[in-house]
Automatic annotation (TrEMBL):
Signal found in the keyword field: yes
Region (Disordered): 228-266
Species, as recorded: Staphylotrichum tortipilum
UniProt-recorded name of the protein: CBD9-like protein
Start and end residues of each Cellobiose dehydrogenase-like cytochrome domain: 32-209
Amino acid sequence: MSPLSRTSVTSLATIGLFSIFPAAVLSQTSAFTDQATGIQFQRFFGARTNFGFGMALSTDTTSKSFIGQLTFPLSNGNGWGGWSLTGDMEGPLLMAAWSDGKGNVISSFRQAFNEDDNPPEVAGTFTLRPIAEATSVNNTFLTYTFLCENCLDAGLGLAPEVQSAEMGWALASRAVRNPASSAGVLDFHNSGFGDFKANLAGARNAEFDKWAALAGAPVTGAAGAKPFDVGAAGAGSGGSDDEGDGNNSSGGGGGDAGNDSDSDDD
Ligand code: HEM
């Protein structure tokens, strides 16, 4: 066998191995512009579920706020969608939104301490201020655009200066119990969940302050909201890329969830 053909055989064997054990590839965010407001997001979008989560940040890397936009389908008005500041569910600041069935979007901050129970509502210095111009809900779809004030903090899971971060998403079609309350009970994200890589450097925009000024009054949580537990948030990693962490192998589970790669922007 000539050296050349030996190389070819080795290459083929390598290709074969990769196709048997494909490397986990994280979905990436891509540019998306909201038509109602012109806000430019870096957005994760799952083509299978139609779940989207976009972020816009200030060019000031010490600014702790971001503008977020959740977009996802509802099933007869039911379901919820949410994001995590890291690729994990347990520990970091989470947020979920759903319909109250009366034309309003209800949202709340959550923190999970296990994967079995409804994550309790939490409160802290962070606030949600809806951007009404780009918020709507009906029986089949929800769009929620908001300023997440003081949400970027290493103690919550993601530091303000981070340029690229692994973050998480979740989508359920099941009805939230007691949906009129921000403490409404969430069941498992049966429609999908997973993590994605957020290009936060690409989400920074000099127009941020102008867009943030569209936000209305802060949403008030339910009376029983607990203080966010920084000790449980897994602080330290700052939520930045934790490749090699091995625990976050790109979602999965929840049926065929987790493979919502692609960043179709339609
Ligand atoms: C804002 C709300 C939520 C968000 C953003 C969220 C996000 C996530 C993410 C990113 C994962 C994968 C990473 C990890 O295992 O830590 C996950 C896993 C999981 N979540 Fe959630 N979650 C939320 C609410 C819930 C609720 C309400 C339940 C059930 C009561 C739940 C149950 C689970 C379970 C069982 C897993 C592990 C599934 C598996 O490994 O197959 N989650 N979640």
